[in-house]
């Protein structure tokens, strides 16, 4: 906002534009976030597949309570695929 109480052109509220953090800093932050989220997704997928393989291959793990665990793994994989 100007000293005389008028707003700057193109900025109706007079507040600073927080969306533009300035070039390189914003790009490296975005790259770091993408890498971090990609690692989390990869760990989630691998972990769920390992649980499904363990329940499918070991007869002692095929119990009623593990049916719910398998259901949770499958739904988690489906959500991860979104």
From TrEMBL:
Q: Which GO terms describe its cellular component?
A: plasma membrane
Q: What is this protein called?
A: Alpha-2C adrenergic receptor-like
Q: In the record, what terms sit under GO molecular function?
A: G protein-coupled serotonin receptor activity
**PANTHER family in the record:** ADRENERGIC RECEPTOR-RELATED G-PROTEIN COUPLED RECEPTOR, IP13425P-RELATED
The record, for Pfam families, names: 7tm_1
Q: Which UniProt keywords apply?
A: Cell membrane, Disulfide bond, G-protein coupled receptor, Membrane, Receptor, Transducer, Transmembrane, Transmembrane helix
Which InterPro entries does the entry mention?
A: GPCR_Rhodpsn, GPCR_Rhodpsn_7TM
Q: Does the keyword Zinc apply?
A: no
List residues of the G-protein coupled receptors family 1 profile domain: 47-82
**Localization, UniProt:** Cell membrane
UniProt main location, coarse: membrane
Lineage, please? Eukaryota, Metazoa, Chordata, Cephalochordata, Leptocardii
Q: Which domain of life is it from?
A: Eukaryota
Note whether Ribosomal protein occurs among the keywords. Answer: no
Q: Which organism is it from?
A: Branchiostoma floridae
Membrane topology per the entry is: Multi-pass membrane protein
Q: Which residues cross the membrane?
A: 27-55
**Region (Disordered) spans which residues?**
1-20
């Amino acid at each position: 906002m100007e000293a005389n109480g008028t707003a700057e052109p193109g900025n109706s509220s007079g507040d600073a534009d927080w969306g533009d953090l300035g070039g390189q800093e914003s790009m490296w932050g975005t790259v770091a976030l993408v890498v971090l989220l990609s690692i989390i997704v990869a760990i989630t997928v691998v972990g769920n597949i390992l649980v499904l393989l363990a329940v499918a291959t070991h007869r002692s793990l095929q119990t009623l309570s593990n049916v719910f665990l398998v259901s949770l793994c499958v739904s988690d994989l489906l959500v991860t695929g979104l």
